[in-house]
Amino acid sequence: MRSNVDFSPFYRSSIGFDRIFNLLENSGHLQGSENWPPYDIVKLGEDSYRIVTAVAGFAEDELSITHEPNMLVVNGAKSNGEEVQYLHHGLALRPFTHRFELADHVSVTGARLENGLLVVDLKKEIPEEMKPRRIAINADPGTKPARKQVDNSVAA
What is the pLDDT of residues 12-37, one digit of tens each? Predict the structure, then answer.
């Protein structure tokens, strides 16, 4: 499924936004496995977020969280332990992978498993050198700006 929006005019006048255009173009591509298990994305404050994933039935060692550049990957896979004969098998304990695109400078601050929920906390921390700063304009105090002289001898 391709997007009907043509981003080529933006490529001519912008630099470094390729990732954003690719995200917009691929936003309609939902994979079936991305719907399970269910998850929430919560904005806690100006620069803090939380992803909560329902992982009932998974143990801590059956889950993994990987922070790649601009990507958070959450995997779950049940270990093939003992053979069990089910009389009824209603729990969906199939392997899963969730991929979350992260903005620049978003990092994982913590993760925990509580009451069948995997909670991953995220924070956007812009480095000091990338924050806006005021630039002082220095004028040489020994020289005065040149004034324009109007020549009276020239007729208007």
Answer: 666 666 667 666 666 655 544 467 89
Alpha carbons 24 and 61: distance in angstroms, whole number? 35
In sequence order, the 6+-apart residues with CB closer than 8 A to the CB of 55 are 37, 63, 76, 113, 116, 117, 118
Residues 49-85 have pLDDT tens digits of 999 999 998 999 999 999 988 899 999 998 876 778 8
The token pair at 130 is 């990338």
Q: Are 118 and 74 contacting, i.e. CB atoms less than 8 angstroms apart? A: yes
Distances (CA, A) of 95 to 52, 80, 110: 17, 11, 23
> Residue 133: which residues within 8 A CB-CB, separation 6 or more?
none
Spatial CA neighbour of 64 closest among 53, 55, 73, 52: 73
Q: CB-based burial of residue 63 (10 Å sphere; 0-12 exposed, 13-18 middle, 19+ buried)? A: middle
Would you say 117 and 53 are in contact if contact means Cβ atoms under 8 Å apart? yes
